[in-house]
Amino acid sequence: MTNEIHAERILILDFGSQYTQLIARRVREAHTYCEIHPFNMPVDEIKSFKPMGIILSGGHQSVYDDNARVVDSIVFELGVPILGICYGMHLLTRHFAGEVEASATREYGHATINKTAAASDLFDTLLPGSGEGSVWMSHGDHVTTPPEGFDIVAKSQNGIVAGMEDTDRGMFAVQFHPEVNHTQNGDAFVDAFINRVCGCNGLWTPASFVEYETEHARQIVGDDHVLLGLSGGVDSSVVAALLHRAIGDKLTCVFVDNGLLRLNEGDEVMATFAQHMGVKVIRVDAQDMFLSRLKGITDPEEKRKIIGHTFIEVFETEAKKIAGVTWLAQGTIYPDVIESAGAKSGMATNIKSHHNVGGLPERMGLKLLEPLRELFKDEVRNAGLELGLPERMIFRHPFPGPGLGVRILGEVKKEYADLLRRADAIYMAELYSSGHYYKTAQAFTVFLPVKSVGVMGDGRSYDYVVALRAVETKDYMTATAYPMPHDLLSKIANRIINEVKGINRVTYDITSKPPGTIEWE
Question: If you compute the radius of gyration of the chain from its CA atoms, what whole number of angstroms results?
């Protein structure tokens, strides 16, 4: 087995920027492997990583603060190209005896920059033609005196140094954030740095990843058997498809139906994997156990914990019935790895809990297998397509780990779940048929445990209310309500009220994030 897909790699040193994961995604989009590590990564690890280029991220500090985060000088002595972004630009400036000061006017949001001098092909990629471009700024400090050997190649309309370079030493720096979608040609700029400046050749592709991980799984598993908790979500589905390709019937999946799935979801999972792909899947009907434990519980966090713990209990019980299993497979992906590392290093400010089978490896004495731990979500989807999974499964909107348990406000009851899944199925069907499903990032129905008065036929009705939600977002950190056509909303509402007995009112949520969240609980 070759390790070729990792042969070319970029090191991203994180100084606490909210955009650091976006940098990594842009590098991966340039078909090059990269990893995010904290700014204080040990010297021996930096050397052993053998990067073909280094990117210094942004951060919320000032480089002249007493406790400012700095990197070891080895970073600038490896002789590989360096790109400093925002704080990274200031750090590079200070290291080479330039000057950085607080700005009188803070630049945040869209800004126009202009090329001020002849520049390398890298900046020509960002600022073609007239040499003017729109970028995304987020800073309070700026470079007042560039280090010796650096040329200023771009400035903002406020006269702030927006870009500088020392092509002889292969060092480049920008005040703006090329990694965000708001920066015009930002993706092309990062691509040019990776491929033209660093000399990478695009070894990191979905096909090469699948080939590598398939062979890797075969080698490390050998004659052992692997157990996977199959939820039907994108991550676990791709793991199932990949491991089935690698080890065949030495993989056993356990699919737990907790009564909080979407309409016909259990049958669809079994059809896709067990019937069409020949994957060994054990289906466990545990909805009575889940619903009984949720009785009377209204707090969202308590519901999440009960659902998570019950899933672990059911999964563990089923696992003990399977002989010869020595590996536990999980759908851990790279953002999970980054957040875990950030929690340990203190780099991450907000760490979310992940709904998976955490804790099982220690309790069950199994070795852990995580074939997707190097991938971002979009890369997982591309790998799924490479493995032949249906597009409708791969590009399905995110579904919370606790399922409908957090889309039913307050107490979870079977009656509520049945009404909600039928209403949501109608909503999804209409979004698909109208072409609006793939125009939204996430859409779903929420069940409200309140009743309203209505008129149906010649009589009075007193039934439940549901809310439809659909948002547009690139990174799920912020989101805006999707401008759903009114005639489509009317059609969906009419179908739900007429076809789902027990619901007589449909609303549409137009709250943005912030101040709201995408999910209601």
Answer: 26
To 10 degrees, what angle do helices 234-247 and 206-221 make?
A: 60
Q: Hey, what are 73's tokens?
A: 């000088």
Helix (H) or strand (E) holding 165: strand 161-166
Q: Is residue 162 very low, low, confident or very high in pLDDT (cuts 50, 70, 90)? A: very high
Distance from first CA to last CA of the chain, Å, rounded?
46
Write down all domains in the chain, each with its CATH number in brackets.
4-197 (3.40.50.880), 206-394 (3.40.50.620), 413-508 (3.30.300.10)
DSSP symbols for 328-382: EE----HHHHHHHHHHHHT--S------S-TTHHHHHTPEEE-TTTT--HHHHHH
Q: What share of the chain is helix, strand, coil (3-state, %, to 5)?
A: 40, 25, 35
Q: Which residues are catalytic?
A: 86, 177, 179
Cα(219)–Cα(247) distance, integer angstroms: 10
Global confidence as pTM: 0.83
> What token pair was written down for 519?
């999910």
Q: How far is residue 305's CA from residue 290's CA, in Å, rounded to a whole number? A: 11
Q: What is the DSSP string of 263-324?
A: TTHHHHHHIIIIIIS--EEEEEE-HHHHHHHHTT---HHHHHHHHHHHHHHHHHHHHTTSTT
Query: Would the pLDDT of 350 be above 80?
Result: no
Query: Residue 411 corresponds to which amino acid?
Result: E
